[in-house]
Design brief:
Shape: globular
Helix content: over 70%
Largest sheet: none
Number of strands: 0
Structural class: mainly alpha
Number of domains: 1
Radius of gyration: 14 Å
Order of helices and strands: HHHHHH
Length: 118
């Protein structure tokens, strides 16, 4: 029940932010492999780590790249938002199996928005 409520809140937030940015939705899309090479490569790595259940490692990598200025602010926001949306879609049991929690996801999202000054 709590998971469904949380997912609805995330979807509402997604719609609000997307509307504000003039977009249908906020996800990282690989459109031009040369123009956004750094963020596209990071996205592939993050998705691979998520698929392997290495959520902590993926989150650490995301923070490292953003803190080092490895990608621009808009790409960083889109990547982070997509990342945390995917993480929050996982069931609590899976998160526990991966040594991650919904509270860590919430804290990570809050930290990313502060880091990106959003």
């Amino acid at each position: 029940m709590h998971h469904d409520y949380f997912m609805r809140q995330i979807q509402i937030l997604t719609n609000i932010v997307a509307h504000h940015l003039g977009k249908e939705q906020i996800v990282h899309e690989i459109t031009d492999p040369y123009l956004f090479a750094q963020s596209n490569e990071l996205y592939k790595i993050l998705m691979g780590l998520l698929a392997d259940g290495k959520i902590n490692e993926a989150e650490n990598l995301l923070f490292d790249v953003i803190e080092q200025g490895g990608i621009d602010k808009e790409d960083a926001f889109n990547l982070a938002f997509d990342f945390y949306l995917k993480v929050n879609a996982y069931h609590d049991d899976y998160l526990k199996l991966c040594n991650f929690s919904r509270a860590e996801a919430d804290a990570g999202w809050a930290d990313i928005t502060r880091l990106l000054e959003i």
